[in-house]
Amino acid sequence: MSSDTTCQGKSSWPELLGAEGKVAAATIEKENPLVDARIVPDGSVVPLDFRCDRVWVWVDERGIVSQVPQIG
């Protein structure tokens, strides 16, 4: 059975945990051109709606990825 939240392409990037945020965002968009990787500082308020074309790249105060980036 198909779900409305089934997204195409790679959906999670655990290997980018600890990487520099800008590098991570570029890697995500290269590996899945259907998504827009958005860098956001830890603690930011973001929309909670699920979208197949968006990846939040959470970064700490040094710009380092602090959570596994995934589609959502």
From TrEMBL:
<keyword id="KW-0646">Protease inhibitor</keyword>
<dbReference type="Pfam" id="PF00280">
    <property type="entry name" value="potato_inhibit"/>
</dbReference>
<protein>
    <submittedName>
        <fullName>INHIBITOR OF TRYPSIN AND HAGEMAN FACTOR-LIKE PROTEIN</fullName>
    </submittedName>
</protein>
<dbReference type="InterPro" id="IPR000864">
    <property type="entry name" value="Prot_inh_pot1"/>
</dbReference>
<dbReference type="GO" id="GO:0004867">
    <property type="term" value="F:serine-type endopeptidase inhibitor activity"/>
</dbReference>
<dbReference type="GO" id="GO:0009611">
    <property type="term" value="P:response to wounding"/>
</dbReference>
<keyword id="KW-0722">Serine protease inhibitor</keyword>
<dbReference type="InterPro" id="IPR036354">
    <property type="entry name" value="Prot_inh_pot1_sf"/>
</dbReference>
<comment type="similarity">
    <text>Belongs to the protease inhibitor I13 (potato type I serine protease inhibitor) family.</text>
</comment>
